[in-house]
Automatic annotation (TrEMBL):
<dbReference type="InterPro" id="IPR006439">
    <property type="entry name" value="HAD-SF_hydro_IA"/>
</dbReference>
<comment type="similarity">
    <text>Belongs to the HAD-like hydrolase superfamily. CbbY/CbbZ/Gph/YieH family.</text>
</comment>
<dbReference type="GO" id="GO:1990738">
    <property type="term" value="F:pseudouridine 5'-phosphatase activity"/>
</dbReference>
<dbReference type="InterPro" id="IPR023214">
    <property type="entry name" value="HAD_sf"/>
</dbReference>
<keyword id="KW-0378">Hydrolase</keyword>
<dbReference type="InterPro" id="IPR041492">
    <property type="entry name" value="HAD_2"/>
</dbReference>
<dbReference type="Pfam" id="PF13419">
    <property type="entry name" value="HAD_2"/>
</dbReference>
<dbReference type="GO" id="GO:0046872">
    <property type="term" value="F:metal ion binding"/>
</dbReference>
<keyword id="KW-0460">Magnesium</keyword>
<dbReference type="InterPro" id="IPR036412">
    <property type="entry name" value="HAD-like_sf"/>
</dbReference>
<dbReference type="InterPro" id="IPR023198">
    <property type="entry name" value="PGP-like_dom2"/>
</dbReference>
<protein>
    <recommendedName>
        <fullName>pseudouridine 5'-phosphatase</fullName>
        <ecNumber>3.1.3.96</ecNumber>
    </recommendedName>
</protein>
<keyword id="KW-0479">Metal-binding</keyword>
């Protein structure tokens, strides 16, 4: 039974929603800022969650008043992140089952990630076949079409426009984990299912159409999609 407005297309976030990369980002940024006697706090981590690489760099350097330029921090973090992503980055619970199910039912799928192309290729290298289920991936940190990162709606509007049939935004459902991503999806005029980081406050979960603990709880039929 459809509980929400029916949709025909689905757009997934990547980090923290499909891939379990957030611990890798947290470890990397903690390691980097600790060299300057600073702490990568939970509050700061949540501010960075879901943002583009260049935006995350500015937020961290400014918030901690680090004695290095944005470019220096970006260079140092890039090297550490590449090492972290070179291993087998795991999938989040329920991610593979949901993607394969929707793909098998011929539901058009896309990814809208704040990451850049280089990092996306590294992070997804162990799951290339699975990511072949997506018609396209919009990469906010390297796509010239994405003028403003999340929480601005640009990335989701672009993701919708690149589907072969250019659906109305109201027919696109977004799956997200970050508050910045949820705000961006809502600003784009789309419904959004949030699978939040446990530390995200109840207040920052409110804008979501639906909040779940895991993708394993997602029921496609709630949005008019083919059930499992």
């Amino acid at each position: 039974m459809t509980k929400f407005q029916p949709v025909t297309h689905v757009i997934f976030d990547l980090d923290g929603l499909l891939l379990n990369t957030e611990p890798l980002y947290q470890q990397t940024f903690h390691e980097l800022v600790s060299k300057y006697g600073k702490e990568y706090t939970e509050e700061l981590r949540l501010k960075v969650l879901g943002t583009r690489q260049q935006d995350a760099v500015r937020i961290i350097v400014d918030a901690l008043q680090l004695p290095i330029t944005y470019e220096e921090f970006s260079f140092k973090s890039k090297d550490l992140l590449h090492k972290a992503f070179s291993g087998n980055v795991g999938l989040m619970p329920g991610a593979e089952k949901l993607v394969r199910h929707l793909y098998s039912k011929k539901i058009p799928l896309a990814v809208a990630t704040s990451s850049g192309k280089e990092n996306v290729l590294l992070k997804t290298q162990a799951h290339r076949e699975l990511f072949g289920c997506f018609s396209h991936i919009v990469m906010g940190s390297s796509d010239p079409g994405v003028k403003n990162g999340k929480p601005h709606p640009d990335i989701f509007l672009i993701a919708a426009s690149r589907f072969a049939d250019s659906p109305n935004v109201t027919k696109c459902l977004v799956l997200e984990d970050s508050p910045n991503g949820v705000v961006a999806a809502k600003a784009a005029g789309m419904q959004v299912v949030m699978v939040p980081d446990p530390q995200v406050s109840q207040e920052r979960r409110k804008p979501a159409t639906l909040v779940l603990n895991s993708l394993e709880e997602f029921k496609p039929e709630d949005f008019g999609l083919p059930p499992f």
